[in-house]
Amino acid sequence: MATPTVPLHPVHLPKDWSPASWRTRPALQMPTYPDPIALETALGELRALPPLVTSWEIIALKQHLADAQEGKRFLLQGGDCAESFAECSSDVISNRLKVLLQMSLVLVHGLRVPVVRVGRFAGQYAKPRSTDDETRNGVTLPSYRGDIINAPEFTEEDRVPDPRRMIKAHARSAMTMNFVRALIDGGFADLHHPEYWDLRWVGHSSLADEYHRMVASIGDAVRFMETLSGAQVHNLNRVDFYTSHEALLLPYEEAQTRQVPRQWGWFNLSTHFPWIGMRTAALEGAHVEYFRGIRNPIAVKVGPSVAPDALMRLVDALNPEDEPGRLTLIHRMGAANIASKLPALLDVVRREGRRVLWICDPMHGNTESTANGFKTRRFTNIRSELEQAFELHAAAGTRLGGVHLELTGEDVTECLGGARELTERDLERAYRSTVDPRLNYEQALEIAMLIVRKQAQLMKPVQA
Ligand code: PEP
Ligand code: CO
Q1: Which pTM does this prediction carry?
Q2: Staple 289 to which of 22, 267, 283, 316, CB 3.0 to 4.6 Å?
Q3: How many domains, in total, are found in the chain?
C-alpha cells in the first residue's frame, strides 16, 4: 500500500476529545455485558494487542479519497453485510477478493479512472438491530448483534453478549487481513484475464452483446499493456486494498485507538476507513463524538429522514476544517425515495462549498421481505437507485464518486433478479446471510457493468 504523495491539509486536534469521551454521550445499539469485570479484562487485552492497520496506510487512503472527491478516482466499497466467525475461510475470503478485483477492473477500464478498493471486511462483525430483543414462540432473548457480540442461534447461552468475542473478532480480522495481504502480494494474477472469469451468466442478459464487448475490450487492453511492457499487468500497477467496517461497538473501537510515533493525533488502527451507520448518526450521540476525534478518513450513512440543515451540522461536527479526503457521505435512500430526498442534500453541500465524497449505497433502502419469509432485495431496485443517483448528481452539478455494496463472491441466492432472473423460489436454494441479502458473484459483476454503461450514457454528447 502506497505512501501519500502530497502533504495533507493541516488540521487541529479537536477540543475536549479523548478516545473515551464518547462515554459521556448517549450510545445507541450497545450490548449490555452481564459481567463488567470480564468486559474490562477483554478490553485490557485488546489495548495491548498489535494494531490491524498502520497510520501511513490510513493517510494514503485519505489522499486517495481526496482524489476521488475531485473526480480523479472512483471508490468501490463492498463486502458482506456481516462477516461471520464460521466463514473466516480461505474460499470465502479469496472469492470475495476476486469479485471485488474483477469489478474494479471493469470500473477502471470503463470509467477510465483508478479505482480505490475498500472491502467491508477484516472487522465487519457488529450489526445495528431494529429491536433489542427477539421473541420466538413466546420466548424473548436479546437480538443477535453480530459475531463480535453474540451468536445467531436462538438460545439463551448464544445470545448473551460475551466480551471474549471481541478478542476473537480481532484475531479473525487479523487472519483475514493477513490472507488478503498475502494474496495481493502474491499477485492473484489470473484475475486480470477475463478468460478466467466466470461469465456464463452474461448470455442470459438482454444486454449480452454489450457485456461481451466490454469484457473483450478489457482483455484486449490487458494483453496490449502486457505486450508493451513485457510484464504482467498485476506487477505493473500493484493493487491497493483497504478495509472498512461500521465502527458500532465503541468499547472495541476505543481499545484500538492509538497514538503513533511521529504523527500527531489519534488513529483507529482496527480499520482504515470506519463508517457511522444510519441508526447511530445522531449529532449529539456517542458515535459522532468518537468519530470526530480520530484522524482516519470516515464515512456516514445518510438515509431519507436526514434534512439538509441536519446534514450540514453533521458535516461541521465531523469535518470542521474541510479537510480533503476526510468525509464520505454514503446516501442510501431507496429507489422510491432517492429522487425526492437526495437533490436538496446535494444542493446544500454544494452551496455551502463543503468538500465531501458522495457515494451511493443502493442496498439498504431497498430491503423487503418475501411471502416465504426471506429478507431480500430486488436487483431492479438496486439498479434503479444507482442509475437515478448518477442522474441526480449530474443534474445537481455534483459528482457520484463511488458505490457501497453488499456482495459476496459465492453463488448465493439472496437478492432477486439479475441476468439469471432469480425468483422467490430460488431464495430457498442458497440463502446463507444471517443478516442482509447480498449480491452474488454474477449480480455483483453485472452491477459493475451497469455502472460503466450508465456513466457512458451520461457522458454521451446530446445529439442536436
Ligand atoms: C449496513 O451497512 O449493513 C447497515 C446496517 O446500513 P445502514 O446503517 O445504512 O442501515
Ligand atoms: Co447490511
Answers
A1: 0.94
A2: 22
A3: 1
